[in-house]
Request: fold
Amino acid sequence: MPMTLSAALVPVPVLLPLAMGTALLALAHWLPPRLSNILAIATALAVAALCAFLADSALQSPPLQWFGGWTPSSSGKPGVVLGISFLADPASAAVAAFSALLFAASFFFAWGYFDEVHSHFQILMLLFLAAIVGFCLTHDLFNLFVWFELMSVAGFALTAYPLGKSSLEGAFNFTITNALGSFLMLAGIGLLYARTGTLDFTQMGRAVGAIGTDPVLSAGFCLVAVALLTKAAIVPFHMWLSDAHAVAPSPVSVIFSGIMVSVPLLYSARSWRRFSSMRQRC
Amino acid sequence: MSVFPWLIAAWLFAIGVYGIVTSRHYVHLIGCLTVCQSATYLLLLSIGYTWGTGPPIFYDHPPGTPAVDPVMQALVLTDIVVGAAVTALLLVIALQVHKRHGTLDPQELRPLRPGR
Reply:
């Protein structure tokens, strides 16, 4: 099957900031800091344009990419999905485009913000951007967890970035709370896999619809939801928010309030839709 | 599948959280966090395990031989890597906190506490 242009482009908005971050890290000692900021702004704008293009083409048919050619048919058994896929549906690609725009604005704002300029801020922010875009586009539950963790780790490091007294303590509380949340998410993913036998979203939705009401599925869904709501700082999981937000440098706070707490909400809404087929059968 | 791994995973998570809540030292607290994380390893491995089967390596026996679920083992491996990154980051933060305050007691260190 020939791959369309938009399907081939699906992984690029994640790979681009990762590659640029790696290049900046390798060249950090030689590049003038201003140039790395310009490169970071250009990367964020390119990611925004790519995601907007994906969102636009998703209005006709959502571009889907199976990595390494592991399509559902390649497993040789019906109903067995071994591959990992990225799917750009209109909503997720549009959210990814918006977050990339916000990153570009934040880079622009950070131009004169820090007293000492290192490229490490740009590198961590590009890693953060790649994680958020990957989180939006992935179509596999465990892959979602990996992007979720990458997003968290980049967030922890960025909170502590000024290495001031209070920012270090705020980052510590933030890390402990969110790490506990992500352990719960992993346990939930394990429970969901134990019942449905798949990690692919489409296949899992089908399996959940076929199984109907089941205590293990409900427990798995609750655990995943707790992790997402911890990240989204919804009461009663909001304890870390004041510590982290107040002490994080302002260009990072923009990303925290604007994107990091709202993207998990988008996902919990979607997984709620996926699991509502179970509810209707009650 | 026996119920013991589930109970032990819940117990490990509970003592880890108890340790985090009552901890008076950041390094001890980070250790408790890894105890919590080992609960997830145990849970995932027990979900993928089937009695009387071998490892999912098929080079010296024919494909189709019963084996434990390799997907769960891949998940645990990824989890260990992620956990190592988080622990390393936390230890670095703890080191920097100690450099600036000379203490690692969470009671002494409160972000946003006025009058410092």
In short: DSSP finds three helices and no strands in chain B. The first helix of chain B runs from residue 4 to 22.
